[in-house]
Amino acid sequence: MPPAPPKVEAPQPKPAPKQLYEWHSKDAKVSHIEIDVDAQIARFYSGGEEVGWSTVASGIATFPTPTGEFAVIEKIAAKRSNLYGKIYDANGKLVNSDARYGRDRIPPGGRFVGASMPYFMRLTYDGLGLHAGPIPRPGSPASHGCIRLPKRLAPVLFRNTTLGTPVRIIGSTPGYGGYITVDAPAPPGGAG
Length: 192
Known about the structure:
Blueprint: E1 21-23, E2 32-36, E3 41-46, E4 49-55, E5 68-71, E6 74-76, E7 80-88, E8 94-100, E9 111-116, E10 120-122, E11 129-132, E12 147-149, H1 154-159, E13 166-170
Parallel strand pairs: 2-13, 11-12
Antiparallel strand pairs: 1-4, 2-3, 3-4, 5-13, 6-10, 7-8, 7-9, 10-11
């Protein structure tokens, strides 16, 4: 009888972190933010001191979060995407849970409802920003390009971040090309 083939164990998925974020200071004003899309981690600084960190969910491969140097150019506490969301029919029945406005058909009498993006902090005029949102698999991208933050941390970061706060995004995704013109008009909405 030939020997049994060696047992090959399937790779185990990465365990989810026990906590999604830490905030070390009640009233620390954030002077700059660094986000690593490869590690799916954001770090928040007040001067040279790290005052918190967070697991994030950045853009998936088909909607990557660009790398580069940005700044918070707008803050909206109760924001909805004008591009991504859900489509309902005339009776209120959900017909598309991952719709893109302008691409997916809205049935007669139906409506498009943009995805909720609470505590939105815009980084570009074409919709990139940070906001509260689901992080379904910590350590893995999950968004349409924005940087999602844990629901409980987002209002703290929103409150402690001002317009002009620098945000550096690093990682292996494509760069944004340095585009950001403070004088450009901001369109309504954001990607999410």
